[in-house]
User: Which sequence fits this backbone?
């Protein structure tokens, strides 16, 4: 399936914006770890350590803009994929919560985001393959 020039332009803009947000996140993450960890506890340290959320927020803004730019079918499909992934993530994290009470190691909350993002990709790929 070929995309028209408008769709290609929209996709290029999305990728450029998302890469920019991810680079901002990575720079802030590196700087916050380097400078924030050795700081004395207090408000400034908390702000420095939380600063990568600026890049994270930018990525959310970029994704929300893209959802608004795509056609209704693509929007519906993406939101369905996210919903399915969220349900799978909830199931996995809830199950692991029970396993933690059985002695499994505690996992960082960062794990949940990784499972959600990975799950969205896997669900999208699986649905694409099943639609063939």
Assistant:
């Amino acid at each position: 399936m070929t995309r028209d020039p408008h769709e290609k332009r929209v996709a290029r803009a999305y990728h450029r914006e998302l890469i920019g947000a991810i680079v901002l996140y990575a720079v802030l993450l590196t700087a916050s770890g380097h400078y924030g960890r050795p700081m004395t506890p207090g408000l400034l340290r908390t702000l420095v350590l939380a600063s990568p959320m600026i890049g994270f927020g930018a990525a959310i803004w970029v994704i929300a803009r893209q959802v608004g730019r795509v056609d209704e079918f693509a929007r519906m499909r993406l939101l369905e994929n996210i919903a399915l992934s969220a349900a799978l993530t909830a199931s996995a994290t809830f199950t692991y919560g029970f396993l933690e009470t059985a002695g499994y190691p505690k996992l960082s909350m960062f794990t949940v985001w990784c499972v959600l993002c990975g799950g969205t990709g896997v669900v999208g790929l699986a649905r694409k393959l099943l639609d063939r």
